[in-house]
Every structure is written in structure tokens, then in C-alpha cells.
Amino acid sequence: MGREERTVRFDHDLQIEAYRFEGIMQKFPNHFHEYYVIGYIESGQRRLSCKNSDYLIGTGDVIFFNPLDNHACESVDNQTLDYRCLNIKPEIMRKVTKEITGQDYLPSFSSPVAYRSGQAQLLHHLHQMIMDEVIDLEKEETFYFLIQQLIEEYTEANTDTESIAIKQEIEQVCRYLEVHYAEQITLDHLAKIANMNKYSLLRSFTRIRGITPYRYLQTVRISEAKKQLEKGLKPLDAAIETGFVDQSHFSKFFMDFIGLTPGQYRDIFIQNRK
């Protein structure tokens, strides 16, 4: 088995992250991100699960995850994966979308997979410029043209018909988890917040969010830990600040969700300050 390589760049011009994974075998458990992910499979095959649907993805395919879309993936036949992706925060996507369309909204990708997408080459080109830390007009132009094409071809209006009352109750639980993530949280308390019994909460939360309350909580904790690490906080301190029981528990979740150790992620931002 070849050596794994994981590279991350933060582009200050575009305000987006770019990841490149080469030769990885890692299985990613069911989780979500608070930002958009636009990825490209350079080599390899994966089984992808997203919002309770399964896909087989491979070389040349482009993938999309909206914020909060739950997803998981694993290798097929022990094939290694070469993968590039862009991580775009909702506020950046909203700003760019408004500039492109003239409308103030967050686009929603209708499917997580675009097989053999015609936009793969443009995505690859933009990603490589970010990896090479290019500061040039072409990079910004390419970014806007890519997002324009993706919006036009792969997004559609939201047609969710879930009960408004139930969605509001689940939203209250999510807001509670996002505020109290560093505390010890019980299912009993979450059920009281939602005014449901525990099973009804689990069933409704998982149906609406596509992920369990516990996995949602851990993802929020990882997101907050990323912010602390970006400020230079040591991994142990970040673990304590965000409610993890110990550093090893924190490191395992961080590696599972992000694909890097907390120390590797922290070092990216320390290096950028030099």
C-alpha cells in the first residue's frame, strides 16, 4: 500500500478551504458539515451513502453535500482514493449566489452525485490553483464560472413538505445542541425540549436531519473544535473546551470527520501566520 498524503489549503482571496487526499483507505462514518462540500474523485471507487440513499461513485464523478446533508463513504474492493474538494461556508455561498443570480438565497444541490460531470475539469483547475497558492485574476474568474455552472445544472428549489410543527421542534433541539455542546446532554432533556417521547424524537430527528442527535452533537463539537484549533489552541485544550471526554476520544472523532488529526489541522493555520 502506498503512502497516504493529505493536503489542506485555505484560500484567503476566495475564503474557502481546499482538501486533497491521495492514496487514502479511510472509511468515513455517517456525519455532516455546516458548509457546502464540492468534491471530485480523481481515482478510485467508493460506496457513498447520503440522506439515506446509496451511490457507487468513481473516477471523474463530482459530489455535492449541502450544509447538514448527512453522508458516509467507504472504499470498494480495498481501492485507494484520490480526492479533491472545496469547502464553502454558507455565508460565502450566499454572497456568491447573490452576485451570480441577483437573488439572496442558499442554493440546494438536488443530488449528491454528478456522474462523469462536465464541470470536473473546471473544478480540478480551480482546485489546483488553490493548492499552488496562486494569486491571480484567473482563479477568481474560474471560481465564479464554476459556481454559476453548478447552480444552473445541479440545483433546484427546495420542495420539502415535512410538517412545519415537527420541523420547528427539531430545530429547537438543534439550536440547543449548538449552544450547549460542551455540556453533558441526555436524551431525556432533548425529548422535553421537543415535547416528544424519546423514541419519537429519535425517529423525527433522524428523518429530518438524516443523522441521529448524538452524531449531530459530535459534529457540532468538531466544528467548534476546528475554530479553536484555527486560533492556535492545543488539541487537548480544544477537546476540553468542546465537551469531549478526553483527547483520544476527540482525536478519533476529528480524524473520522475531517480526515486529519487535530494537530495536523492546527498546524495549517500556524503555518499560514508565518
UniProtKB/TrEMBL annotation:
PROSITE patterns registered for this protein in UniProt: HTH_ARAC_FAMILY_2
Domain of life, per lineage: Bacteria
Keywords: DNA-binding, Transcription, Transcription regulation
HTH araC/xylS-type domain residues: 171-268
InterPro entries: AraC-bd, AraC_XylS_family_regulators, Homeodomain-like_sf, HTH-like, HTH_AraC, RmlC-like_jellyroll
Gene Ontology molecular function: any one: sequence-specific DNA binding
SMART domains: HTH_ARAC (SM00342)
Alphabetized PANTHER family for the sequence: HTH-TYPE TRANSCRIPTIONAL ACTIVATOR RHAS-RELATED, TRANSCRIPTIONAL REGULATORY PROTEIN
Name of the protein: AraC/XylS family transcriptional regulator
Organism: Shouchella clausii (strain KSM-K16) (Alkalihalobacillus clausii)
